[in-house]
Amino acid sequence: MNADGDRTPGFGVYLHWPFCAAKCPYCDFNSHVRHQPVDQPRFAAAFRREMATMRERTGPRTVTSIFLGGGTPSLMEPGTVGGLLDAVAEHWDVPDGIEVTLEANPSSVEADRFRGYRAAGVNRVSLGVQALNDRDLKFLGRRHNVAEALKAIELARSTFPRLSFDLIYARPGQDEAAWAAELEQAIDHAADHLSLYQLTIEDGTRFQLLHEAGKFVMPDADHAARLYEITHAVTEARGLPAYEISNHARPGAESRHNLVYWRYGEYVGVGPGAHGRFVQDGRRHVTFTEKMPEGWLDLVEAKGHGVTGGEILTRSEEADELLLMGLRLTEGIDLPRYEALSGRPLSGRRIMDLQDEGLVEPIGNTHLRATARGMIVLDAVVADLAR
Ligand code: SF4
Question: Which residue numbers delimit the Radical SAM core domain (predicted)?
């Protein structure tokens, strides 16, 4: 639940800035390196145009959160960020004080830019710290060291009301004591929110090639599970319990934008490779846009949007997605909402079987959630319930 007690799923706006200074070897996001300066005014104009098209599709709506993700949005000039936020407010109703997050990399941080983002309306920063030890930062291909990360954290804390940062764990050679100590150190610096992801080897990444060539060994499943348990125990003890499988916050400091996804709310996605899911004419539409930045730009300039695909979901597909997203949350899923969408309740028999195995648990009569053990095998739990 948010600080204001609001559990409505919400309507978010996601803006994808697709450029990075370098490609990290583990990354499979839609991020691109350009050796020539990016024409920011031209991209900003295209964002504005695509927003106008999305606004025609969604109709008038009240925005509950805005998220500038990437890529590396902190490579944008503050004026570009300000222009994008103004454009959101021109197209939809944006109440004062809603959460406006910008992702930033410690290496692309400058005090002046941070002040500029704050003046433009950003009130929350999510920093890609990833590790608090220099050897692992190098292994992860990051362009910053620990000293720079800590400096960026301090600067963010003194500039923005809210701060989150990301760490990647289950790294090669990382033992339990080292991770627990690093996590304690992170919490000493964290303002109110941490995103803690296990390192995974994704298709098409440089890590996939290196891993297949035997250049490093990943922790086995048991070791990774123990690191996951440590993550939950340490954050819980320090007052930032998990509210989602990989996200931890002081109560009331949860990311409202990410809650839009997990509570199966609606969002528009604008920019290269952005995804959206919103209700149009009473049905939930999925959109995704051209991933290549210049290709997206050409499409938007030619026809007002870069949408290259999507679908209209059936009620039962919506119910499956609700299950998939909602069981990631500690608050669980709203069973009456599931039933209203799918036209049938979840199987009581299957719930009981999973409960007997210690993988799910009811919360009162209206909610069901995965237990800590269930979270580790969440895909299997979801598949079982959705059958
Ligand atoms: S900075 Fe982030 S988005 Fe860019 S390559 Fe690295 S992990 Fe991917």
Answer: 5-241
pLDDT in tens, 199-214: 999 999 999 999 999 9
What pLDDT sits at residue 3?
A: 40
What is the chain's percent helix, strand, coil content, to nearest 5?
Answer: 45, 20, 35
User: Ligand 1: which of 17, 26, 27 to mutate, judged by most atoms within 8 Å of the beta carbon?
Assistant: 27
What pLDDT score was predicted for residue 235?
96
DSSP string, 147-210: HHHHHHHHHHHHH-SEEEEEEEES-TT--HHHHHHHHHHHHHH-SSEEEEEE----TTSHHHHH
Sequence letter at residue 321: E
At residue 285, the pLDDT reads 97
Q: Give residues with Cβ within 8 angstroms of 174, minimum separation 6.
A: 136, 219, 227
Q: What is the per-residue pLDDT for 4?
A: 42
Question: How large is the greatest C-alpha to C-alpha distance in the chain, in angstroms?
Answer: 59
**Matching residue, tokens 């009581």:** 348
The domain 11-261 is placed in CATH, from the list 3.40.718.10, 3.20.20.70, 3.30.1510.10, 3.40.50.300, at: 3.20.20.70
- Residues 269-287: pLDDT tens digits? 999 999 999 999 999 999 9
- What tokens does 2 get? 């948010």
**Residue 27: CB within 6 Å of ligand 1?**
yes
> Which residue has its alpha carbon closest to ligand 1 atom 6?
24
Name the residue among 70, 168, 86 with its Cα closest to residue 125.
70
Q: Ligand 1 mean position to 10 CA, how many Å?
A: 27
The architecture that CATH gives domain 316-386 is Orthogonal Bundle (1.10)
- Any atom of ligand 1 within 6 Å of the Cβ of 120: no
Closest ligand 1 atom to the C-alpha of 71? 3
Per domain, the residue ranges of the chain are 11-261, 316-386
Assigned token pair, 24? 């990290």
Which tokens go with 189? 């610096």
pTM for this model (two decimals): 0.95
Q: In the prediction, which pLDDT does 376 show?
A: 87
